Amino acid sequence: MTILSQYDKLLEQTVFSPDAHSSDYLCLGNDLLSVTQAKERKIPTSVSLLHQFVEQNAEKIPEKTAFEFATGSTTESLQKKTWSYRELNEDGNRVAHFLQDKGVTPGGMIAICFDKCPEASIAILGILKAGCAYLAIDPGAPISRKQFILEDSSTKILLCNQARKIELVGLSGIDVQALDEPGLLEGLSPTPPVLLREIRSDDTCYCLYTSGTTGTPKGCEITHDNAVQAMMAFQRLFSPHWDENSRWLQFASFHFDVSVLEQYWSWSVGICVTSCPRDLLFEDLAGTIQKLQITHIDLTPSLARLVHPDEVPSLCRGVFITGGEALKQEILDAWGKHGVIYNGYGPTEVTIGCTMLPRMRANDKPSNIGPQFDNVGSYVFRPGTSTPVVRGGLGELCVSGPLVGKGYLNRAELTEERFQDLPEYGDRIYRTGDLVRILYDGSFQFLGRIDDQVKLRGQRLEIGEINEVIKKATPELNEVATLVIKHPKQSKDQLVSFVTKVDAGKKSRAVEVCADENDRPFLSMIKAACRTHLPGYMVPTHIIPMTRFPLSANNKADMKILRSIYQELSLEDLKNLTSMTVDRSKKSEHEDVIISILAKFVGSTDGAISPCSSIYELGLDSISVISFSRSLREAGFSQAQPSLIMKRKFEVLALIDI
Predict the structure, then answer these.
(1) 383 lies in a domain?
(2) E strand or H helix at 287, and its extent?
């Protein structure tokens, strides 16, 4: 019905406004455009500051367990230390008094740098109670990056634990305090601090630094109002899937915003946050989750695929969020019948999340990131403009509402570029840089980054489109990542797809290239799908089978390591891998002739070229193929026109029938 209405409106405009621009869709009206207003401007709540969730429950359910931290050498030897809501609130007050003694005042910023430990959560609570924002720094970041962030944010106090203090005292211009130092908080009052001014809902609550396009990180500021409204939106999404025995695993590092959700959403509904050292988790992720009786968790898909419902039945009665990268069908196949998977999406700049598809089943689409939250508005614009596309059209997702953050710390120009006012709509948006389309039910289909569109060999191509074709090639496929990479022994960039099989990671924990004769059908199906569905210039030069993908610090596939793996392969390795992508039973009489012509054309030897070699791999592109086609015609291949060669996907084997 929407398409017919759009057609009717456009036809009407064509007849009555013949001079109008063909891409001007504004005449359709918002109902037929990709403009969706928020259901509510704000979700009602009695809380205006993030830490008030803890304070309220310290009064309502003072002896209920709010936080527990488990330690032990193995899963079987775990021991827990617990804090009730009253104890957690009082420890937060002590930290606030400690900071006041250090001279902090409301509106300031305090840095933290913690591995997994109870002091981290208590430090964050205390900083908020003191009226300040916390700035979480990655403990594993180089010391120079830590120094830059502290100087850029003008932070003067850094809280850590004793294990980290040895390294951090080398930072200049900063007062480093280890909260687990014996006696540090002793004698401090457990009562709320008296502040010089009231904390405002538009005060910065936390600041997280993310990678910047200029090569230096940028700090994103989120206010108390942003964070509180996010917690209220998540309450609606998760309701009624929690009870008094629910436990959320505090898994994310503190310099990722998911850690805010893990802790403060749990405390907003009065359940328990459970944590433990990261090494213990990775030693036996599924075993630790089950031992701790975790019911709520947020993992990237790369980690989510490592746990199965049979191993962690406690998760089958709560909430299992996956986000941060594309959801995998393998996860839906395993968890779909339990209806606990939530596919979440949201940049740091819009406070953790802004769309989510809840309670997913096996037949749901992994690319569906759900509808926007009740307090979120959205626009899908033509990239780089404020012109909405027709409903269902492809464009850049722009988000409005109370979850849109304050902006980038000390980056006025970048803030103005990404956080924009829309006077025509009376709205303020954040431009995500992500490509989406609105589906029939108001959900969004995620289609990748705008900057996934790259130019290679004279052609523009969309990485996301290539990955989608490969994903559908065979049910054996688990993961795919496609990169444009230059090999040190090759003269031009290559299009390289890395893939894993569904069961490959179960056979080996190592991250390495794996290919044997049994993989030939798997790889040839992928190559065949690419040839069938993609133009020649978008067919990957190499398909590299991996045992598993390497993970970065935030548990996403590490593209830098994948890039280096490719660059370390020899040309002989690449030739052998390429031959694995073609399933052949006979040799054509024209094969040797074509290889000989190609070898002379590129200045190589016949032996260096296989029937499965890509012409792109050998240095040709959409321009030089013109001369190559002429050489083929001169040798008697009368149909060898450039356009036909391009349709044949630029592979030697595909040229034989010309």
Answers:
(1) no
(2) helix 285-291
pLDDT by residue (tens digit) across 83-100?
999 999 999 999 999 999
Q: Is residue 71 part of a domain?
A: yes
Q: Which helix (H) or strand (E) holds 35?
A: strand 35-36
Do 6 and 67 lie in one domain? The reply is no
Q: According to DSSP H, which parts of 181-277 are helical?
A: 224-238, 258-260, 266-268
Contact 162, 138 (CB under 8 A): no
How many residues are recorded in the chain? 658
Task: Give the residue numbers spanning the domain of 119.
Answer: 52-370
Together in a domain, 81 and 215: yes
**Residue 462: inside a domain:** yes
**Residue recorded with tokens 């994103």:** 220
Let me know whether 473 and 554 are in one domain: yes
> What's the predicted TM-score (pTM) here?
0.75
Report the candidate in 346, 331, 121, 321 with the shortest Cα–Cα distance to residue 241: 321
Query: Are residues 24 and 66 part of one domain?
Result: no
pLDDT confidence of residue 646 = 47
Dihedral in degrees, nearest 10, Cα atoms 42, 43, 44, 50: -90
Half-sphere exposure of 143 (CA within 13 A, CB side): 9
pLDDT of 630 over the 80 cut: no
Asked if residue 476 and residue 595 are part of one domain, the reply reads no
Residue 116 and residue 275 in contact, taking contact as beta carbons nearer than 8 Å: yes
Q: Residue 291, Cβ neighbours under 10 Å: how many?
A: 19
Quote the number of domains for the chain. 4
Residues 13, 141: one domain? Answer: no
Q: Which two tokens stand for residue 440?
A: 């029939």
Give per-residue pLDDT as tens, 445-485. 999 888 765 656 545 566 877 888 899 899 999 999 999 99
Give the CATH number for residue 648.
1.10.1200.10
658 CB contacts (<8 Å, ≥6 apart)?
632, 637, 639, 640, 644, 645, 648
Q: Give yes or no for a contact between 321 and 301, defined as CB atoms under 8 angstroms apart.
A: no
